[in-house]
Give the backbone structure.
Amino acid sequence: MTRREDSSRLVPSGRFGRAALTTALWLLVAAIALWNLPAGPFRAQARPLLRPGMLRLGLYQDWGLFSPNPALRSQALEARVQLADGSQETVTLPLGDPLVGALRGYRWRKWQGRVLDPDHPDLSSGFARWVARDFTRDPRGLRHVALVRLRATTPPPDSQEPRAWEEFEIYRLTPLFLPAPRP
């Protein structure tokens, strides 16, 4: 079989298959259009129905970060790892990388927004466990992992004002078995 024949199997054939694909695409376009309606009663009714699908597909957007009404608050997420010897390590999300640049940072920031959303507490515990896994073999011994939300008012553009960050612990993971202190 040639490569072209392999890829043709992904496209539905026949009248029913093409009609199903066309219908699915139109429903997706309609959902995206409804999701991005201006604020109002119709959008308020449509969004709760669309939210599960839009979140799963990664298509949820909020254009409020753009002018004329930019976001007024900045937020960040840190995992603070307390070790048995009293030292502390801080794990932050990556900002980008040389290969894909800002795209990597954007995806991490989008994920951060979901972790900080109170509707997704399972993501907080999962992230804390993921961070803890990196420290379970650390010879200093893991005491706990605390997830911290950092929030600050966003200063106006071209402002020299420093941000005053507020900190809130949103989740704490303490392992069941703490390591014995090492001499």
Observations:
- The mean pLDDT is 81.
- The radius of gyration is 23 Å.
- The chain is about 40% helix and 20% strand.
- The beta strands are 73-83, 88-92, 142-153, 166-173.
